[in-house]
Write a structure and sequence with these properties.
Layout lengths: L17 H4 L3 H6 L5 H13 L8 H13 L4 E6 L3 E8 L4 E7 L18 E3 L5 E3 L6 H17 L6 E8 L7 H7 L2 H4 L5 E11 L3 E2 L3 E4 L1 E10 L3 E2 L9 H12 L1 H6 L6 E10 L5 E2 L2 E10 L2 H22 L6 E8 L2 E3 L1 H15 L3 E2 L13 H4 L5 E9 L1 H6 L22 H17 L5
Parallel strand pairs: 3-6, 3-7, 7-18, 8-17
Antiparallel strand pairs: 1-2, 2-6, 4-5, 8-18, 9-16, 10-14, 10-15, 11-13, 12-14
Helix pairs in contact: 3-5, 5-14, 8-10, 11-14
Length: 440
């Protein structure tokens, strides 16, 4: 997978005639696409060796070694933890950043793939958990590395500076900001545009985007309710946190159904309740985990305030002797695609991918911290989705989302091809949209 070199670097670019520079982007990319079989093997390796957020050391080392093997990129490591950035300067022009995330999830894989993960790691709370690339970040890494090689091979057709960002800790929402805070943009030039993509359960071979709000904001909370423990035969001497937690969960569900504007989007899910450990003991505390999705700042503030109000009121109603503890465990911004950048990109995607590209993809209620890499420096960004579901499986189930495994499912298994080819091409087309320059 190394690019041929001499004298310690890549051979000098051939000065192509103007007609060659102006030939279709599809011909340019298809004629120079790297050996994707090598990248399929890389994806299999990454998939079978996943690492949790803030623990992506081996993944980062693999990425850095691959980039150095291309013998053209200046590589920076350990940014904001295990973050990687690479720069290739190719003359005057715009500076474009392409981003992929690297972390995996605490999910036990059930895909049946020959390269399925059997890894376990200690999670954020110190508990040993199975680990899986259940959100497709192995695909993201693979596509960006393949695009990095492809863009080197066609560098005679573009001018500018290319930045590659491999971000840790996306799943917990802190990786992008941590890279910025740790001096990412002191190491690499400020990009004019930041671009990224995500594999979804759409039909493999398809992709899409939209201007404006692309992804929802997200807030995750850990809520600890303090009761008074005791013997199960003497509940009158206790303050039962299980009953308190149960009433709290039910009341929290009324925030969306009875407090937020029905024309706005808000989702509140209680995803975990933990209390006690045996049948004859009433526990002294219970722990809830809550996830909230919104798209507008006013609604976001309203829902968070309502959660705090309801939790406190339920504790007061139960006569608890200790205030509840409400902790933020992750927070993601709303991802807003720049109208100007996205419309320019959509035209190129439409020309390149034809009917396989959807320029009005429905908003996704999942969340990403990708946009922080742009908004933190006042620059525009655009984010799009690519499909990963086996076309045969997708068609057999008529695209029914209830029958097709989605992101974060233990059965989520993006097919190798055409997923990697589409993801690689999309990254290259996106970069070339803003870097390509004809010359005599």
């Amino acid at each position: 997978m190394k690019i041929p070199n001499s004298s310690g670097g890549l051979p000098g670019p051939q000065i192509l005639p103007l007609a060659t520079h102006q030939k279709s982007l599809k011909d340019l990319i298809s004629g120079n696409r790297p050996n994707l079989r090598c990248y399929e093997l890389l994806r299999a390796h990454l998939h079978s060796h996943p690492e949790l957020s803030q623990q992506e050391s081996a993944t980062a080392a693999k990425v850095a070694a691959h980039l150095r093997g291309l013998k053209a990129y200046t590589v920076f490591e350990r940014i904001g933890g295990h973050g990687i950035a690479a720069v290739f300067k190719n003359g005057p022009g715009q500076t474009v950043a392409l981003r992929a995330d690297m972390d995996a999830l605490p999910v036990e894989e059930r895909t049946g793939l020959p390269f399925a993960s059997k890894v376990t790691m200690r999670d954020y709370d110190g508990i040993v958990k199975p680990v899986m690339h259940a959100c497709g970040h192995d695909i993201h890494i693979t596509c960006l590395l393949a695009a990095a090689e492809l863009l080197l091979k066609i560098r005679a057709a573009w001018r500018g500076t290319l930045i590659l960002i491999f971000q840790p800790d996306e799943e917990r929402g802190g990786g992008a900001q941590r890279m910025v805070d740790d001096g990412l943009y002191d190491r690499v030039p400020l990009p004019d545009i930041v671009l990224g993509q995500h594999v979804m359960s759409m039909r493999s071979g398809k992709l899409g985007s939209r201007s404006g709000i692309m992804l929802a904001a997200s807030d995750s909370l850990k809520i600890t309710l303090f009761g008074r423990g005791g013997h199960a035969s003497m509940p009158n001497r206790t303050i039962d946190p299980v009953v308190l937690a149960s009433s709290t969960v039910l009341r929290l569900q009324t925030i969306v159904s009875r407090e937020t504007d029905p024309s706005d989007m808000a989702i509140l899910s209680c995803t975990s309740i933990q209390a006690g450990g045996t049948e004859n003991i009433i526990s002294s505390e219970a722990e809830l985990k809550v996830n909230i999705r919104t798209i507008h700042g006013k609604t976001r503030s309203q829902v968070l305030a309502a959660v705090r109000r309801i939790v406190k009121a339920e504790c007061d109603a139960s006569g608890t002797e200790q205030e509840p503890l409400i902790e933020s465990t992750s927070s993601f911004p709303t991802t807003v695609n720049s109208e100007e950048v996205t419309e320019t990109l959509q035209k190129m995607f439409g020309d390149y991918f034809g009917e396989d590209f959807d320029s009005d993809l429905p908003r996704v209620n999942g969340s990403e911290d990708f946009s922080t890499l742009a908004t933190s420096i006042g620059k525009p960004c655009s984010f799009w989705m690519i499909g990963g579901t086996d076309p045969a499986t997708f068609d057999e189930n008529k695209g029914n989302p209830e029958k097709i495994p989605s992101n974060h499912s233990p059965f989520f298994a993006p097919i190798m091809q055409p997923t990697i080819r589409i993801g690689t091409d999309a990254m290259a087309v996106a970069a070339m949209t803003f870097l390509r320059q004809a010359r005599a």
